[in-house]
Design a protein that fits this description.
InterPro entries: Transpos_assoc, Transposase_21. It comes from Vicia faba (Broad bean). The protein has helices spanning about 15-25, 50-60, 85-95, 100-110, 135-155, 170-180, 185-200, 205-210, and strands spanning about 35, 50, 230-235, 240. The chain has about 280 residues and is mainly alpha-helical. It folds into 3 domains: about 5-95, no CATH class; about 100-180, no CATH class; about 215-278, no CATH class.
Length: about 280
Amino acid sequence: MDKSWITKPLSSIAYQQGIKEFIDFSFKGAKENDVVICPCKRCGFRKSKSRSDMFDHLSWSPFPQGYTMWIHHGESFVRPSTISPSTILNMVEDTIIVEDPIQNMINDAFGVDRNHANEIPYASNLEIDQEDYAMPSATQERNEAKEYYELARGGEQPLYEGCRRYSRLSFLVKLYHIKCLCGLSEKAMTMTLELIKYAFEYANIPSLGALSGWNTYTGPFCPSCNFQTTPLHLKASRKWCFMGYRRFLDRRHKFRLNRIRFNGEQEMRSPPRTLSGQ
């Protein structure tokens, strides 16, 4: 099987066709609702995904280039005598599970086994009944579980929408490191946090509408797109979503022609002109 597509750009036809062949190979013999280990950078061979989810992940996250023998997805291992040492090394490096240091820190703080962290009941399901859990030890365990998952959620949520570098928790840890390394006092750290809060107090979309008079709550949401915005009002949630984001894709990107996965229409428009504010 030709696997040269692994090194191709994500937007290329060869890469898109390649991930389809990889997914077909991985789900060979699988049932409709079965899941398979996802090799994308985010999942890192740790999570199993459905066929459609895996396709979405690999469409925006590069396929691991050293993973040329799909031993985790049904391909038989070739005899070592036919593989060069460098190839074996690349295979091992690209199939090593990449651990999240923030998640490991939380696990260590709460004494959770890293290999079984996902087996703990989720915090939202831990409703405490005073009659059933009158013992202090039981209540304490559930409080600790809630604290654990609050921190875990903070480690997964981005610092702000679209931020890929820091989560909310990792940003706080970074600030704490700076405080310790630079010997900042509690007063200096508090004043710094207050300054950050004050500086970005109005740096959000609702405040943009309140201060500038631009309506950010209905259809013409984006100042750049103006009346060329493509809004869609969701009846169930009573919220607005915007379907014009495919305008920013490459002109040859397959999503531009995909009607089924989006709003039933093709998107052939160019990106809107970015306003300078002058």
